[in-house]
Every structure is written in C-alpha cells, then in structure tokens.
Amino acid sequence: MVQPYFSKTRQEKFDQFLKFIGTGRASSDITEILPAAIEGKVDTLFIENRSDIFGIYNPSAQDLIIQNTHRVPNVSLMNLVAMKALKKGGTVYLFEKKDAPDVSSNINALFRY
Q1: What is the DSSP annotation of the chain?
Q2: Which of 1, 5, 91, 99 could form a disulfide with 95 if both were Cys (CB 3.0 to 4.6 A apart)?
Q3: For residue range 65-79, what is the model confidence (pLDDT) as tens digits?
Q4: CA angle, 48 then 93 then 2, to 5°
C-alpha cells in the first residue's frame, strides 16, 4: 500500500541527483560524500547493494584513506556514511548497479545545500 509513495519519492530524489550532479549539490565521490554526511549535508544516499568501500577516515584532519580490502583497522566507509546520513535525518536507498544514478560509482549522494 505504501510502495507507490516510496517509489515516487525515490524517483524524485533520483531525478534531483541527475539534475544536480556537477553543480556541487550531488556527488559520486566518497571523499566528498563522507565529510558531507558527517556535517549533516546529505539529503539522500544511493548505495549499491552488496558492494563496499573500505578505508580509514580521520575526522579531525578530514583525511580519508581508501583501501581495496577489509583489514584492521579500516572500516566499511559505506556503512559509516549511511549511519552518519541517517543520524542527521538523511534517507538511504539501496540499488542494483544497473539502477544507479551514476553507474560509475557504488555510492551517490544528493546534498541538502
């Protein structure tokens, strides 16, 4: 019963992402998305299902090291971004690769401002 509402909202955010990519209001770059999520700037995240980005983030220096595999002490950066976005009132959608707003990236964000 609520499926049409959520599908419509998701499509609207998808369309906004496409409209704003390249303007500073949307990004497919984890190095931009993670600090934005921490600041509460992320309105909507689109995260590829069964995919991940691993690394280490130092918030005080805003330094991000991306690594190819999970090994201590790195973490799932996609989980970190999702948790930060949700905590600050953002919305997170999972998608399959073929349905991504930007298929070149496994994480896409629409910013509030």
Answers
A1: --HHHHHHHHHHHHHHHHHHBTTTSEE--HHHHHHHHHHT-EEEEEEETT---EEEEETTTTEEEEESS--TT-EEHHHHHHHHHHHTT-EEEEE-GGG-SSTT-SEEEEE--
A2: 99
A3: 999 889 989 999 999
A4: 140
What are φ and ψ of residue 26, in 5° steps? -155, 155
- pTM of this prediction? 0.90
Closest CA to 97 of 28, 31, 30: 28
Report the C-alpha gap between 111 and 24 in whole angstroms: 8
**Longest CA span, the chain:** 46
Residue 53 in tokens = 């980005």
